[in-house]
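The protein record reproduced below.
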Amino acid sequence: MKHLKRRTALAAVLCALQPWQAAQAQAGWKPEHPVRLIVPFAPGAATDISVRTISDHLAATLGQPVVIDNQGAASGTVGTAAAARAAADGTTWVLAHDPPFTILPHVRKLAYDPLKDFEPVALIATIPMVLVVRPGLPVNSIQELIDAARARPGQMTIASSGTGATSHLAAELFKYETRTDILHVPYKGQAQGVTDVLGGQVDMIFSSFGPVVQHIRSGRLKALGISVPKRYASLPEVPTIAESGVPGFDFSVWTGIAVPAGTPHAARDAIAAAVAQALQVPEVRARFDGLGFVPGEGGPEALRRKIEGDYAKWKRVIQAARIQIE
C-alpha cells in the first residue's frame, strides 16, 4: 500500500511538471563529459551575459562543467556554423540569437540552415527595447509621432547602432507597420546614437533599457513606447507600442539554447529542464531585472515557435525595406 502511495505521489509530481521537465525526471539524462557552449559573439555582449548568468547553475544541475566558447565573428554566423557541424550527442550547445537564426539568412548565403540544422532547446531571455525621442521633439505619444512622420515624410530621423543591427531592424519594423518614411541614420555603436539623440542631432532611437533608463528618469529623453506586448515592470508608466496605435507590434532581442539536429530528445529535454530551473533562481532573476532582461518561459516548442515566427517576420520586413548587409 505504501509503495502504491509513493508511485501515485510520483505520478502527480510528474504530471505537474512541464512536458520536457517530466521527460528529464523520467529519463535522468546527464552529459558524460564537459559541455561546450558556443557563444557566437564576443565576451561582454548582452547575449554573452545572459548565458553566463545561468551557466554555473546549469553545470550544477547536469553534473558537468559548462565551458563557454566565444566565437565572435561575422555577426554570429561563424560560431553558429561551427555548432551546426558538431556531434549531436548533447555536449555541444549554441547560444541561439536573432541575427544568425532569423535575420541574416535573408540577406546572405550561410553555411547552415537555422530551421533544419538545429534542435531548439529553451529560451533564456528576451530583451525589450524602448523607443525614445529627443526632449525638444513636439510629440508625446506613439500616435503623435506617427502623425508627425506622415506629415513630414523622409524628414524625421531615427538612429541605430549600425545597418542590420537590432536597433535598425526595430526601426524598420516600426516604419513597416506604421507605413511611415523616417530617415535611418546608422552609427558605429548604440552609445553614439543615444548621445546624438540626447544632443538633438537625431530625433529618436530604439534602445535596450540599460543605455537610456537614467535619461528617461531624468527627463533628458522621452520614452514613447515599449517594443513588446507587455509593459516593462521597471517603467510601468510607459505604454507598449502595440497598445498605442500599432496593434500586434512585437520586437525584442532574444537568446536561447539550441543543439545540433539529431541530438537525442532525452538530452534536449534535460537541458531545457536545467534552464527552466536556473531561471527561477532569485539571484538570476535579480540580475536579469537589473539588465532589462525578461526570463524566458517554455521549453523546446516555445523556442521553436519564436525562431520560426521571427524568421517569417524578418523575411517580410527585410524584403519590404530592401535591407542589404555587407
Q: What stands out?
A: The first helix runs from residue 2 to 16. DSSP finds twelve helices and eleven strands in the chain. Confidence is low (pLDDT under 50) at residues 1-17. The first strand starts at residue 35 and ends at 39.
